[in-house]
Structure formats: C-alpha cells, structure tokens
Protein 1
Amino acid sequence: KEPYYATPDDDLYAVPAKGGEIRRVVSIDGPIGDFGLSPDGRRVAFVGFMNPKPDRSHNETDLFVSGAAPGAEARNLTASYDYDVVEGLAGDQHAPRAGRPQPIVWSGDGRSLFVITGERGRVNLKRIDASAGAVAPVTQGDQEVVSYTATPDGSRMAVVVSTPTVINDLYVLDTATGRMSPLARPNQELFSQLDLTPPEEITYKSFDGKEIQAFVQRPPGFDAKKKYPLILNIHGGPHAAYGYVFFHEMQWMAARGYVVLYPNPRGSSTFGQEFGNVIQYEFPGDDAKDLLAGVDEMVKRGSIDPKRLGVTGGSGGGILTNWIITQTDRFAAAAAQRSIADWMSFWYTADFTLFRRTWFRGAPWEDPQDFARRSPITHVAKVTTPLMLIEGEEDYRTPPGAGGEMMFRALKYLKKPVVMVRFPGESHDLSRQGKPWHRVERLRHLVAWFDKYLLGKKIDTYDVP
C-alpha cells in the first residue's frame, strides 16, 4: 500500500485468455522490466536486477531467464557482463519516454536472445545464449540502436539507428549475419545540404588517475591554428551517458563557433556497476573534478582559449553547473538548466520520494551537514561567473523553487550577474520533448548568453535597464 518504503519489486503474472484465476509465474527480489516469452511458451526472458544490500543509487540491469511456471527459478544470464542491458544514451532527438520499442527477442529455435546493451557510449544489439549467457555482437559500430522490432522467428529486425551525423535511419537487419540494409533515410536530403561533422572521442586521466571518456564536437571548418571558445556540456542523470547518437544541441553550438566538450564522468552509465555507483552519497564531488580535468586536457591540447570557457548542463548536469561555479572562477559564463541548488529543499519537494537510503544516508534533519555541504546554495557567495538559469514552470523532478529560484534570488541579493528564463507549461523534458518553439528559444538563449560573455558580442537582452 505504501511501496515507497520498500525496495522495488515486480512480479510477472499469467491471466487465462478466457478469464479465470491470475497466477504468479516469475518473482525475483527486484524489479522486472521488458520481458518476452520463448517460442514454445515455456520460458520467459526479462530485464531487471536483484535488490542490493545496502541500497545503491545506480543499479546495472541484467537479462534473466526463468521457466514460465509458478516456482521456477530465474537465472541471471549477464551476471558476468559488466555493462547495461537495454540501456540507451542521452540525446535530444529520441521519441518520448516509453515511445520506442526495445523488446526482448527470442530466436526461432529458442537458443538465443537479442537485446541492446550500452557499452562505453555505444548501444548495439547483442546475441545472448539462453543457456550459457555468452554475449556476442550482432550490430557493431559507433552508433546507438535506438529501437527495433522483430519477425516472430527473430531472423530479421526493423532497426532504427542514430549516429552523431544521422538522425534515426531505418534499416532491415539480418540477425544471422549482422548485415543491415537501409530502408528509409528521411533526413538524407536535408543533411546533404549541411556541414555536419562527427565528434572526436578522447580519453584522459582525472585527478586520481581514473580514465574518463569524453567527446569533442568542433565547428565546421575547424582550424587547429586558431583559438576557440569552449563550452563544457554536462549530462544529467547523473546515471546516464553521452555517446554516439545525434545530439542537435552539440551540433548547434559547434555551428555557432564553439568547441563543445561533453564527458562521461564517474557516475555515468555504460561503464560498469562500480563506475556508475561510485558517486553515491558524494554527488556532486569527484565527478566535478573529472569534468574540470577534461577542460584542463582540452586547454593542454591547444586550440582552446582558457579565458573563454563556458559551462552548462541540465538536471544532474544543472546541479554540477551550479556546483562548479562555486568551486572555481575559471568560467566566463554558465547556464544551469532544470537544476538543484539545495538538496534539502529537493528532498522535500521532488516528484519522487527519497525514503530509502539511495541518494542520501538519511533525512535532512538527521544529517543536515551532509545536505548542506553538497548544496551549491551553501557556497553561493563564492560565485563570480555570470549565470543563466533555465526552468520549466511545470518541472516537478527538479522543482524551480529548489534550484533556479534559489540561485537567482541569492545572486541577485549579492548583486552578481544572473538571469532566469522560465518556460510556461514545460516539464523536466523541455530540452527533449518540449514544444518545438520553446526548444528553439531555449537554444537561442543558451548560445546568446555565451556569445555575450565568451565572444564579447553586444547583446543587451539580459542587461538591466
């Protein structure tokens, strides 16, 4: 009756087609996501995870197989595969949440299963042995298999694929050979008129020697002999990942003359369970240091003007933006989107409960020092960076009152340069699924703010009369 007190737990039930008693067929101590019945109906494969003890903030999903009869034991096929099963990438050109099929597909002989997995910023289809759990690639490459459906025997699939320079082309896939034949390329005519370039993937060492992956999107016609302004763009989640998928925001910023750095700091998904969960109870913290080490790396490699650095991010990236400008004054401008300023206020007002010890060790009154030390608002007096705050007025995930409103009022009180752009009727998904004109306006505000402070353009939109 009050599930928010308990660990997540789903069971799978069977209902007679003609009506009758409902019976439980699969039960694990954990959630069950997508599932698929074997061709003979005797087994069921599903995605989920076993609840850990103690709680974690990031749980890597696995593929399980169970008999489709009451009392059958579920086996974890991917326990030794340290990547995320049925995991996508952060992007701004996906269908709305739950709007893209990613089914669990059985082969016709019942010996194999087909699923997507996320590995280091790439998402491809894998064939997983239904008995031994051996994982083999079906598709490969620097891409995201966004969604797919299969023929009843699993021999062919319709597959939607995105890359940094392609939005959601449709292919027919032969699962036996991995060969993909193009079926529809709806944006080919438009893209033939544009100068789109793929990002460069780089790796660098963070402050403690941990290897961090990042992507660098450069402007069209990039000249290595010149010095460019750089925008550090931080993903949300924080358990999410950037990767090889079309990201309009990065291309837009690069087209306006910026080098865009978008890293996967510790806490990101698609890099294994330990890497994803290492920030539990320490967010923001070492992940911010990973991001700053990436900026150092770009400056060291040349072509970046260290006096023209900007930082932005949304959700988890929004709080990291707020946090970073309380820790350093090296950025000439910042834009925090759908952010958090005060963890205590977030705990009380977010649209999901935090009654379990996943993100925090206790309630705000039990350990107020912990909530305060990780809250940007605690350190707001140190901010010197001009800050733009972008909020959706119907954002219940990171309520404006716990984020942008706080930062705005505090910085206004301190007479620091700050503006807030509020979008009526928009939710936490403004940048991905907001009204088209709002999405355009958001990007224009973002780049105009950086143009003003990084390029020195005369833009009086944000000046106080």
Note: The chain has a mean pLDDT of 95.
Protein 2
Amino acid sequence: EDAVVLAEMLTSGDGVDEALLKFMARRFPRVKMVLDNSLQLAEWEIHPDSPGADPGRIMGQTLHALVAPA
C-alpha cells in the first residue's frame, strides 16, 4: 500500500516535500491502527487469560478497516 500511495502522491503535481507531508498524514492513522492491533494481539497471545481478550473481534475490526481504500 505504501508504495502505491507514495507513487500517487509523488505524481500528483505537488512538490516532493508537500507530497511526503500528505503521504504521512494519509498513511499514519492506518499504519498506527495495524501496529497497535498487532501489538494487542501479541499481548493476548502471550497472556491468553487476559481480561477482555477478544482476538476475533480485533482481527475483524482490523480487516474491516483494511478493506477501505488506502
């Protein structure tokens, strides 16, 4: 996704600095969500008896979010 979005941003006609700022603004929330959810899943894998552990829910939410355009 990063490569496709970066190519789109760099060919938009904006300068490189502006394109990179827009790229970060566009990509950061999605990448952060994937990282945060992955870390939570890893924590639950290590401690499966954690109160509120619900890997299926967080995996479903993540996959649902990822079907939206990048």
Note: The mean pLDDT is 95.
Protein 3
Amino acid sequence: FPNLSLTMENLTVIGTDTFKNDTLANIKELYVKLDIMTVIKGEPIKVLSFRLFEPNIHAVVLQNGKANWDIAKPDTAPVANADTAATTFTVGLQSYEISNAQIVYDDASLGFYTKLVGLNHTGTGDFTQDLFTLVTKSAAKEVTMKYGGMTYLNKVAATIDMPLEIDLKNSKYTFKETQGVINALNLGFEGVIEMPTDDIKMDIKFSADKSDFKNFLSLIPAIYASSFSDLTASGKFSMSGYAKGIYNDKSMPGFGLKMKVENGMFKYPSLPTVVNHVNVDASISNPDGVLDKTVVNVPLFHLELGAEPFDAHMTLKT
C-alpha cells in the first residue's frame, strides 16, 4: 500500500516446435508491484518493481541459430488504426530483484556455454528517463563459462557491483567504476556496449593490477574448492584484457589477454617441498574475432620445484 501487488507462483514457460518438450523457464514466484492509480483509472498499467524468486532459466540456441525463447505467436488480427493502438503496460520501473537463480545459456552456433548457480541480483534506477544510471549488485555461488571447446571458468564464485549508465534512445550502455571478485581475485571493468541494431558493438576492458599470486591460484577449481585456506603463497600477479568489435550471428569481437606472475611461491602442508620462483609472461591476442588469427604467446614460464628448475616457452598461431 498504496500500490498494488500481483504474485504468481510456480510459473512455467514451455518451448514450442523443436523445443516443445523443453522447459525454458520455471519460476517459483513472480512478484510485481503496480501503480494502483493506473489500475483504478483504467490507464496502461505502470510496473514499478518486480522480483523473481528461484527462477530456473535454460536458454538454448541450436547450431542453425534457432532459439528456444522465440515462442511468441504472430498477431494476425487486423489493426484499424495503428497510430492510436494502446499498449496494456508501461514501465515506471524503480527497482528489481532476482533471488537464488539458476541460469544456463547454451549457444551451439557459437560454441559458447555459461551457467550461473545461486545467483542473487538487484538493480535500482529510474527507467522512466531516457538517460539514467542503473546501480546493480550481483553475486553467484558458481559461474561456469566455456567457449570454443575450452573451459575458462569452472564453478567459480563471483560478485560484481556495477553502476551502469543507460542511454535508452541510442541503446548504449556504459560501465563505470565496476568492481568484481572471482573467487579471491579482484577485477576492475570499464567500457561501452551499443545495440542500436541486431549487431552488438562492444569496447570493454578489464584488469587485475598487481594482485597477489594466491588470488590468481583461487581460480583453479581444485585448489579453491579443497584446500585454499591451507595454501601458503607469495608473489605478484597482474592481468588485463579487452573485447572490442561487433558481435552477431556471424562475427565475434577482437579480444586480448595479458598475464604476468612475478616471483611466485606456493606450498601445501601435504607437499614435500616448496614451488619457488614462479615467473610467467603470457598473452593471447586476436585483432578482429576471426579465430584463425588468434595468437597465443608464452615467452616465459619458469618455476623451481625444490632445487629442480623447469622452463618452457610456446607460440601458437593459425
């Protein structure tokens, strides 16, 4: 009060055609807060906030590009006067919340897969404005990300606080002073995403400047899950990367990643000796998103297991 709330429980969305036996979404509770005066006056209903409680969402794109969320039926009814046709809902959104979600995006056309488990997300902002800042907070118990047959993140914990400047007229989204944590590794993000058409234009940068080597080791699932608290480690780690270009059904943006480990050391109580003098210099670069142009370069990889040194280097092209 004084607003009106609407709740739906055990909401299920089933696919059609190819996906007729698949569940796109299963939501334990959907809560919507409405502007009561728009309801009383019979005006287009204004949605002020919503909450999804324990949503389980499984989005799939097949090799041929067909998506399981393309389920809307075409409107075949004639419209007498399209200019005066009224909409049923308007958005006056002030806040939203997603609690304990599991979200899977599986795109076979791009070889990309990501899964979020235990996701909690909140957002506040004035969606009635053409230009405003959306302040979001997110945390997930497990994040898994795979691309091109490689697993880049495997069940890592993650949090992110992101103020996002939204330009609705130009479909432009600007990240400012965004901070995130993956397991124990702190990351900073900045950049712009534009979606005026079906193409997604992006220019995103991220970095972890002079972090501890132990924080980098937290990204290794076996270490973090079983005995990270027992690990003794020292040394410095830094990482930076970017994605820049056009993303659509036929192209990927260019990307790059640089990583350095300086004078790292780690030891477990169960290990017979210390791993010392870990020094790594590695980079991945791709100028335009064509995977065949990707270059992996590791000019330096050195560590010492007790008194035994180990050195390697690698270059991978084409």
Note: The first helix runs from residue 36 to 40.
